[in-house]
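[job 4471] stage=fold_predict status=RUNNING
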Amino acid sequence: MKEKTKKKFKFTKSKAEVTVMASLGVLFLVVFAYLPMFGLVLAFKDGDNVLNISRAIFRSDWVGFDNFVEFLHDKDFLNVLLNTLGLNLLQLAINFPAPILFALLLNEVRNGKTKRVIQAITYLPHFLSWVIFAGIVFALVNMDTGIINQILLKTGIVKEAVDIKGDPKYFWALIIITSLLKGIGWGSIIYMAALAGVDPTLYEAATMDGANRWHKAVYISIPSIAPTIVLFFILQISSLLNNGTEQILAFQTQSNLDRSEVIDTFVLKYGIRKNMYSYASAVGFFKSVIALILIASSNFVSKKITGQGVIY
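[job 4471] inference complete, writing structure tokens
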């Protein structure tokens, strides 16, 4: 038998373009993800209030785990941790399944024009910055001129105007509702794409067997997009200590600080405003370690239960 001749690799223009694009992605990860990891050494040094970052990294005294101990004994630690976990668990329970349900409902809309209009309306808030979106929300919930208070008063739900913006007890609800409004449309895109890949003959066969829309959604649509759901669920679990800093800062006021201070804003304030680089690095390192444990644990449990996971 004649030996198969090896194909000579030819570096074409199209391959060069793909290589350049991929190289830019790798470069981005190196510059913004891997190189900054060297700064984690600050978590084990006394580099607070040292204006020169390089001097803080290379010349500061080694203090071991002192910064971590200081954070764990901080009087605000428990409150910050509870706020972070509370908000993220609520978003996991409410905001995570919302795009899935929305995608399933949108998949049932047969009129193409109607579907496009709904998609355009629900996608639009995603492209607004949190500063603009928060400004719109604050105008709507204003105690004197906001339409929300006007509706609540006229319907008799409340007897006097409610300070939704400043009252701490409304902050979590404000964050959940606004993140839901802003992200439900955009978050459904990936699930709509997954649903588009489902074999239409499965639905046709189910129709012939007498299945209604509910049966098709439960027994065909959801199982078909289950791998996508599991993937995003595991990633969401790993982000239980992450909050949208832009969103929190946009809605945070001095009056609701007890309910709005989370780990991300805590790190930002101590690291940038107070120049406590080592302390902030220790808090960030602590959060990253917990995230690693969470993603590994959730991936392990998911593989045992569903046979699917992120890490193989």
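[job 4471] summary: DSSP finds 17 helices and no strands in the chain.
[job 4471] exit 0
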